[in-house]
Design brief:
Blueprint: H1 3-14, H2 16-19, H3 23-40, E1 43-48, E2 56-60, E3 69-73, H4 91-94, E4 99-103, H5 113-130, E5 141-146, H6 148-158, H7 161-164, E6 175-179, H8 192-195, E7 220-226, H9 231-243, E8 248-254, H10 264-267, H11 272-281
Parallel strand pairs: 3-4, 3-5, 5-6, 6-7, 7-8
Antiparallel strand pairs: 1-2, 2-4
Helix pairs in contact: 5-6
Length: 282
């Protein structure tokens, strides 16, 4: 295979925008619907969890004392989107009694994925330290993410927390719900539309790949994937199942959904992913 053929194949496998031409309209709908959620929700917005400009999060609260917290991490191949596009994920979980923290992070190419991983770790540690300010317990804390956010949620589950910051418990993340996630970053080195943002290097990709880490000693992984997604995302799901079989608590097949429409199954109270996530969390 020539270099040009490899690049073309990489786009076919992993360029979700190429596979879903109406992606811009979908992003605009997410933003509108998320603004509507924020307009009526019980929420604490733009809380700062770190020193950098983008290190903020929004916390959505249930009626009454939260039974735990779900940290949601948006996708966008580490280079686009914002927490303000992702408020739509909160209602199914606040209705079930959980606090939901929607996390922002700095974007590529201003920073690399290694920095982003450290930022979402800071967000998780901050949530544990501050959750009692809105009546939530320190634990359980769950992570959830879509696409690149699924990668980041898996990295949180894979983190050796006491080694990262002494005093934190090994089981800081009780479970991760990873939707259309990326678990082995090495194939993305051959996707020009991804690498244009300089997210990581060939040398750095293995260390940023959850599937190449040992399975976490504590916590559980739930994965979800749409049947109409690019073939590369199907390969990614097979990879994490093979490497993390011991902690892989289940997989949600979302028939007919593409890389973007799959979020409907998380944002609806009767959605297949929301229901499976709540079963895991309970």
């Amino acid at each position: 295979m020539t270099a040009h053929e490899a690049r073309t194949e990489g786009e076919r496998l992993y360029n979700a925008r190429l596979a879903v031409p109406q992606w811009q309209q979908i992003f605009e709908r997410w933003a509108r619907d998320s603004a509507a959620v924020r307009a009526t929700a019980r929420a604490r917005l733009d809380l700062r969890y770190g020193p950098q400009q983008m290190q903020t999060l929004d916390v959505f609260l249930p009626e009454g004392r939260p039974r735990g917290t779900l940290a949601y991490i948006h996708g966008g191949y580490w280079r686009s989107l914002d927490k303000s596009d992702a408020s739509i994920v909160a209602p199914p979980f606040t209705q079930a009694g959980y606090a939901v923290a929607v996390v922002n992070y700095a974007l590529c190419p201003q920073v690399g994925v290694d920095v982003i991983v450290d930022q979402v770790r800071q967000a998780a540690a901050w949530l544990r330290a501050h959750s009692q300010e809105w009546g939530a317990p320190e634990a359980p804390l769950f992570a959830c993410g879509h696409s690149a956010g699924g990668h980041l949620a898996a990295m949180l589950l894979a983190t050796d927390w006491p080694a990262w910051r002494p005093g934190l418990p090994a089981g800081l993340i009780a479970g991760a719900i990873c939707i259309s996630g990326l678990y082995d970053l090495r194939p993305l080195l051959h996707v020009p539309s991804v690498m244009a943002a300089r997210p990581f290097t060939q040398e750095g990709a293995p260390g940023l790949s959850p599937a190449l880490h040992a399975p976490p000693a504590q916590g559980a992984l739930l994965t979800a994937l749409g049947s109409a997604e690019n073939p590369g995302f199907h390969a990614q799901a097979r990879s994490i199942h093979a490497h993390w079989r011991a902690v892989h608590a289940g997989h949600v097949d979302c028939a007919g959904h593409d890389h973007f429409s799959i979020l409907n199954e998380l944002a609806r109270s009767d959605g297949a992913i929301a229901l499976a996530a709540l079963r895991l969390m309970k």
